[in-house]
Every structure is written in C-alpha cells, then in structure tokens.
Amino acid sequence: MLDDHQRRLLGEFVRAHRERVRGRAGAGRRRTPGLRREELAEAAGISTTWCAWIEQGRPVQPSPEALARLAGALQLSAAERAYLFKLSGRIDPSALNADDGAAPEALRVLVDALPTPAYGLDRLWNARCWNAPAAHLFRGWLDDAGDRNLLRFTFLSEDAPRLIPDWRARALRLLAEFRTDYGGHFRDAAVRALVASLSEASPLFASGWNEQDVLPRAGGLRSIHHPTDGALCFRQFTYAPLEHPDFKLVVLTPVSAAA
Length: 259
What we know:
- By secondary structure, this protein is of the alpha+beta class.
- The protein has 2 domains: 92 residues, lambda repressor-like DNA-binding domains (434 Repressor (Amino-terminal Domain)), CATH 1.10.260.40; 150 residues, Beta-Lactamase.
- It starts with a helix and ends in a 5-residue tail after the last strand.
C-alpha cells in the first residue's frame, strides 16, 4: 500500500491534470475548470467514488490497467504518465513487451564513439548495439550472427567458460544481477519466458535462480581469456540512459595486469 504522503501526491497530481484537460482539448469556457470528476471517471472507466478517493488521498490502489485508462483520459504526456505510475507504485502495462529490436539513438551514438569495448543491453539483456572492440573481445557472442542474449551466451554457449575465467562464479553473479532487473519486469511475458527457457536448458541457471540471490549491477575488474590476445583485464562500468532506463550501456576500459 502507498503511504499517506505518496497518496496525497498522487491525488494532487490527478486533480491538477483533471482541471486542465479541457484547456488542452480546446473546448469552450465553463464554470468548472477542466473535467468534472464524473466526466473523468466515465472516460477512464472507473467509478466517480474511486476518482474522488484517489484525489482525496484515500487508501485505494488502482490497478495498472485502470491507471493506464486514467492517463489516457487525462491526456498525459509520456513523462507525466511515467510520473503517475511511479507515484502509484505500479508498472505501466504499455512498457511491457515493448520491443522493436532497436537500441535508442543516444545509446548507439555513445557506443560507436567509444574507443574501448562497449555495448548496449535491453531489458532482456539482449545486445542491441556494440562497437568493433566489443565484437573482437566477445568471441562467440557479439561476433556471431546468432543469439546475442548475454544470459543465454553465458549459461549455454561453449565459448563462455573458455572466455571467462572462474566462469561458474561469474555466471551466478550475472544471474543475481539480472534478478534485480526482474523485480521491475516480472509481469513482462517476454522476461518470464526467458527465465523459463534458461531454467529448462541450464541446470546451473535453474539452481542459481532458485537460490533467490539479488545483487546490484556492480562494476569492477573483469578478466577475459581471449583466444588470440591471451589474458586481458578490464574495468567495467554500467550506465542507464536517462530517457530509456530499461537499457544499459556497458563500457570496459583496459587495465594493466599490475593494476
């Protein structure tokens, strides 16, 4: 349940935007600013009582589907809609299963501009963009025309144990980091399907998933045993684009063996 402050913020936000809808729509002057509560309730497919209770900050918890209809009735912008769902502690259903296969331009530009290995991951941890140094480094993953999902590569590819020293520990660490993201996407059918398929195909993944470990996507030193370049060491950094927080930018900067 939402706390009192959160409910008050939500109610103030809904009321303020209800009172400005008519002006956005270009309708004529009227005594009541914006939409009446009953008009908003009808447009959103919720009861007038619920609409009033939301604005009054009462302890009600609208479903994600009801919030989506409310956002449409209020004619919210993308930023305003995201704010509505954050205040409500809900996941926007329009964000689920949204996948056009392309990385955001802001991510692609950064990846291409970096001189060291860099790649971008989507919410399923598919590599959506990468530069030439990354393709050279990650043999069997980014240099291949096949599956470019980081989890499937790590747990199912024969190349991963040869490329990653202490592969088992690193794989389980990666799984625990992915579970952190899973907490925000557990309603996403594609994310659930990925977990189910990996659990079936990899006993190590299934065992690790059942352990329920959760870890942040931490940086630090990463060792690679490259088939042609030998032992390599990098420092890894991970960033999330502000406009597309479901994506990740992963950058590896080389460090010397002594460091």
